[in-house]
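Methods: example folding runs. The two proteins below were folded one after another, and each record is reproduced exactly as written to the output file, sequence line first and structure-token line second.
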Amino acid sequence: MNDFRGTSLWQILLLTLVSIPETEAQTGSSSTDSLRTYELSEIIVGGEAESRASAVAVHRISLASIVRADAASAADLVHLVPSAHIQTNSRGESLIYMRNVGERQVAVFFDGALLNIPWDNRIDMSMIPVGMLGGMEVSRGIPSVVYGPNVIGGAVNLQSRSLERSGSLSEFTAQFGSNSAARLGGGYLYRSGEWSAQATGSLQSVDGFSLPANAELAYSQDGEFVRTNTDRSINNLFVRVGRNMDSGSEYGVSILHVDSEKGVAPEAHLDPAEDRVRFWRYPLWRNTMLIANGSTDLGVFGAVRATAWIGRFSQRIDQYETDRYVNVTDRQEDRDETVGVRISSGKAFGSGSLRIALNYLTSTHRQTDTVLGTESSGSTPTMLSYKQHLYSVGLEYEASFAGRMHVISGVSLEGISMPETGDKPGRDAIGDYSVMVGLDYRLNETVRVKLSGGRKARFPTMRELFGEALRRFLVNEDLRPESSFLGDLALELTGSRVSGEVVLFFRRTHDTIDQEIVDLDGYRLRRRINLEGSRVWGVEFVGMSRILENVKADGHLTLMKPDAFERGETKPMNEKPSVTGAMTISASTRWGASARVSAVYTGRAYALTTRNTQVKLPTSLILNLRLALRKYIRENGLFAEFYAGVNNLSDRLTLPQLGLPGAGREYRVGLSLSFF
């Protein structure tokens, strides 16, 4: 239990006592204590989430929970997901980790389309707008074969909103906060018969995030209150048109566009005189996606669901000479073009149903690096092109027996080829396989037992194989794929006032991809390597307890032991906390006032220094407060809410990565209006 040192007993007990699962979070229901969903019942959590058998653990987050989070982006919702946490890295990307599995192993989908940028198979969660979302569905265990290749650490399905019945809904939100933070957003939802439409958008900006009072940064910090170079502005627009036909067929087309610019916090533990520090800014970060999806019954071919998407991503990285951000020394310009298709078809077979799933994704990454301000700055920059094809075909069978037991099993073959590798040596196409099995047994009306397990592989990304990050990384041409064996055992209790889930999980990964520090001609560079492997075991507590009719507690707590194998010995995995947890106590009154107090805990973790040694990172317990007053005027069809909140109430230091602290105390006030 040494990995849990630094976690006081009262903190674990407090989080555990209130971590009895909330029915809303488990079922996706939004029938109680919601804002727009409770008062305006036309809104449903809708969209293109894949149908999943109950034998596979799925956690659902309702529209009501999303609205109450006052989230500026999807990154602000991750604390609602059991065993998940957000970590902002030295590139300024807010990445999701689940059960201490790396961000490249977690796939994020929106209405069935993959949001991950294939160059590095990850997505900055802070760049995903929330105004378009109607709900989240998160798979934490062994994934379905429907998700395709590389989904080794879980899947996050984001779903767009829709109206359940004919009518319209107009929305407006305004939020202001610390460090000149401002966010204005609006939306319009419409439905008439078979046809529906949605248009949402927002503008937001902030001068930077607040610096905790006890941060004590050694280098690269200008001022006491705002973290250096953490300003950003993000604009987004989402439009969708759909048709739900009386025959049961559904079709939809949507466009998502995100346009932003931002700074990147420098690593404050590194001395710029001795180490390469990222003095970076993104004057351009732009992502545009066209998504088409639908489902229909094709008779002999069964029920078919398909999603196709085209994505274009572009960014520019400016590397500055110092933390004054005046002279640009290097520039990287990226452009990614992606086409993806997912098709699944299910049909009754024997006593159950058989589903076949096809996935194909092709992506081209074009990169131009320019050296500025040196003798070589006059040379013509070279544009390098990289391309990959990812594909998989899978079969999945599920069946129920005697009304109590549900089983699911699946197998898939997966492959990758890279026909273009820039100025690097070519690589042969490689393939692998995945298998999964699951069982759900209902003991009685309120208690279920679930067991699942399997094997999944992940291929190295193009960036892991070829990326140099403006001369920060050495390329390792011998990098190999990862493979993991996963297992879950869950006990689920569903009740009217108390419901919950306890999950034991295990993951054994071979050829884990990690980093090491290499000293080359006096410069410390990073290089990706394959470890002998890694292992994570843990236990999750998820749930809700309704204390009084208008008072409830909900949350989750996960205890983990993440180990890496090296030369026959084990050591803690880098930047993988041994404990993660969150709880919320909420109360409301009949006259519209409400209060929510939440706590987010991160336990002991370790980090790698530039000397290839490990140091401990501090634990943290962050308290957040939200007060709201809402009013529904039925005569005018107006729903209004005014709210105020404080994040990190005690101004505690969080340090998920060396030299990159999280935000300190920050305030916000907001107003939301809905007309229908």
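Second run, written to the same file directly after the first:
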Amino acid sequence: MAKPAGSCYYRTMNNKQLFAIATTVCLLTALPVFAGPFDPPPTYYNTATGTGATLQGQLHNIIDNHTIRSYGDARSILQDTDVDPSDPDRMLLVYNRVSLDVSVINPGGSIPGWDSGASWNREHTWPRSLGVGSSGADNSDLHQLRPSNPSINSSRGNRNFGGVFGAQSFGAVSDGGTKWYPGDADAGMIARQEFYMEVRYDGSDSNTVDLTLVNGNPGTGSNTLGTLDRLIEWHYEAVPDDFELRRNDVIYDSYQFNRNPFIDRPEFVWSVFVDQNNDSQIAINGAAIAGDGSTSATVDLGRVLVGGAVPASQSVTIDKLGNNGTYYEVTAAGDATSTVSGRYNAFSTGGVDSTSFDVGLSTSTGTAGLRSGTVTIDNLDITTGAGAGMGDSDANDVLTVTLDVLDHADPSFNGVADQNVLNFDFGSVALGATDPTFNFDIFNLEDTASFTAALDLDGILGSGDTGTLTTDLATFSNLDAGLSSAFTATLDTAVAGMFSATYTLSFSDEDVDGAIGLGDLTLMLSGEVTAGSDNADFDGDGDVDGVDFLIWQRGNGSPGGLAQGDANNSGAVDAADLAIWQSQYGVPPLSGLASVPEPSSLTLVFASCLFVAGSRYSTKRRSA
């Protein structure tokens, strides 16, 4: 296969240069734009459209005829392909994953980093005695060769692979015979290397045979390697990591110019190596499952005020129904974020499975409005034989993540305009009359439609005659925008006089992040309680007597006021007020129940009072 135009090329560079370039995206203009730094070119698998044996043949044609590097070349190339991601002077050995410092091995020799196999050697993960030749392309294929500790390589020998993932360390295990477990770090990678070998080598290349993966424990000379069922399990238990992805890309981009399709497209494995009846179905935990296997749910991050902090992400759980394993892709769109992303996610085979991850939003709260995004989970399996809602027929599952960013609440006495002061005068009300009332509302104006915070009334401070001018005001919480709360003010008529009171109301936003105290509203009330239209009870003691006359006498000729003797509230104390006193003498002013005194008695009292007044007048004149 010819080297693609615009590819990165590493052969003449040292390990540090290779490391730096391989961990970034090549920026050459001729290189196709990939989704990630180690992804294949967009068209690389365009012809892989079938399933089963058809797909296997299509993949063989895609990866066949690669550039063959010699077995000797691997002594230096493996130092590049298997470089330690954390240190370019080191490389990772297969099985035990030891990081070996190759910079100190034969640094001045013809092959720096190689000391004739004393520190490390080349491991055929598909052994020569199980079908790999000693002179064909399969012998030096970099997709299956790995650097290894010599003694560990010898211990492995030509054993077939086996062992339960996560149950033991690397080494020999008893699993239907003595087999070799590559260790958790390498199990999935080893499985995909052997999948590659079966598809790549069908005996059509010179000096090669048709390699086959089987179950059981095949022996030497059979051209077969086991155990397939364990390799399938490992493939779903241990997804490709960055080390494996980079290794695949470097082999393609710099050395052999072919790729391992089961790293790039792990969803091909079930169709090629198992059957066309994958019964996996992915569903959002707790959501209703439609006939096509799709589910949907909303993750509501709640409400926050403009300028507040975006709430933390929330955990969601997705389930895998069915017995078979599957890979799935997670894609975030809009403002949504997810701690799981990309196509290298898998559910294990052998039963139902589930996993949890966090979804949230990356957004600004500078303006009011809805913030949202979606997280889509796509079952990547390509088989359709299991029926609707399973495998390739399992429709996507969608999480919609939302956040309401709210404008601040806006308290007002008016439902259509911002009114912060309300002044109400009850006017003049007769003493003892039914207490008058005044109904008023407190509104939360909706400054931004559908995105205005609820309103809290936090405090009520009254001043003035709050014992006479009362309200039923009470604190409240979470008055939604566009709504109002009704209250009543009352004037108590039990006591005559002029009254006024002020109520200062303090507000804040609902209790969410970014809430602030808001401006006050002021309610101003006033009113006068009078003792009727004609009232000579100047001292307010409930009767009209001589004391009231003396009050009139002292106030005669002065400006009005009940306490000065203005019985008719005319604004002046004069003879008309005296006449009212005379008519009400001895009668409670509002009861109307007492009898009017006999004229003779009233005349005597009145005459006596006039005599007293006249005597004072004469005395004053004589002394002048």
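Comment on the second run: The CA atoms of residues 77 and 116 lie 15 Å apart.
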